[in-house]
Design a protein that fits this description.
Elements: E1 6-8, E2 18-22, H1 23-32, E3 40-44, E4 47-56, E5 60-71, E6 78-82, H2 87-100, E7 104-109, H3 120-133, E8 141-142, E9 146-147, H4 148-154, E10 159-164, H5 173-179, E11 184-189, H6 197-205, E12 209-212, H7 221-236
Parallel strand pairs: 1-3, 6-7, 6-11, 7-8, 7-9, 10-11, 10-12
Antiparallel strand pairs: 2-5, 3-4, 4-5
Helix pairs in contact: 2-3, 2-7, 5-7
Length: 238
């Protein structure tokens, strides 16, 4: 029987090592997941291992690492530039796009952005849980918010940014990805109310940004990010 639970551990993991888990993660394993002594679980960071629970106390759980079952591998970078949303939509955005395969999140404060600050620690926790659930190994990088000007300045020469705009009606994400398979692919999603006139001018004149359409319907911010991320991943690996 395959282990039913899987967790991320931010420490060196070696076969035969005894690991003691305390505090919040111990509480989660004992009281939420209802783990038992002799139960096998999966643990991961720079690979994935099977471990056995050998002791449970009131506020701690002890594991012994049995064997490595999966190696980490180089994963294609998918970056999402997005206008921060309110708390709940922002968390949905991070959770679902992590599950899909986005591994770098860069909030960008734009002219129509209503909420510029993000709780990075909270979003990292959500992305870690999404990685545990989706059987991936690499925890995404979540950055602090930058300005639109800084976003433009930091685009690399080998990066193609797919900007999903309301104005664009005929360019598909599928075609952009297929035309740029040798480059780093990023996604840009604007705020509610779309990009400002100045931002659109910057998008249209930057050689590393290509506008794309997400269809006829006007999508909410979190929906647009999920759709765009799924389309990019599907065309990168199909």
């Amino acid at each position: 029987m395959n282990p039913r639970n899987r967790i991320f551990l931010d420490e060196k993991i070696l076969t035969g090592k005894i690991i003691v888990i305390k505090e919040k993660l111990a509480h989660y394993l004992i009281n939420v997941l209802r783990c038992k002594v002799n139960e096998k679980i999966l643990i991961f960071n720079d690979g994935e291992w099977v471990a056995e629970i050998i002791n449970i106390k009131s506020k701690a759980i002890e594991l012994i690492v049995e064997k490595k079952v999966k190696d980490i591998f180089e994963k294609r970078s998918i970056k999402l530039y997005f206008s921060p949303l309110k708390r709940s939509p922002n968390e949905i955005l991070i959770q679902k796009c992590t599950e899909i395969g986005v591994n770098t999140f860069q909030p960008v404060a734009m002219e129509h952005t209503n909420i510029s600050k993000v709780n990075v620690d909270r979003l990292k926790l959500i992305s870690t849980e999404a990685i545990e659930q989706s059987a991936q190994l690499i925890i995404p990088k979540i950055n602090q918010t930058i300005s639109f000007k800084n976003f433009i300045e930091q685009i690399s020469s080998n990066e193609i940014v797919i900007a999903c705009t309301v104005q664009c009606k005929n360019m598909s994400i599928s075609q952009i990805v297929k035309d740029n398979l040798n480059k780093d692919i990023s996604i840009l999603i604007g705020p509610e109310g779309d990009f400002s006139k100045t931002e659109l001018e910057n998008i249209k004149t930057n050689i590393n940004i290509v506008e794309a359409s997400l269809g006829e319907n006007i999508l909410k911010g979190e929906t647009a990010t999920i759709v765009a991320a799924a389309l990019v991943m599907d065309n990168l690996f199909s």
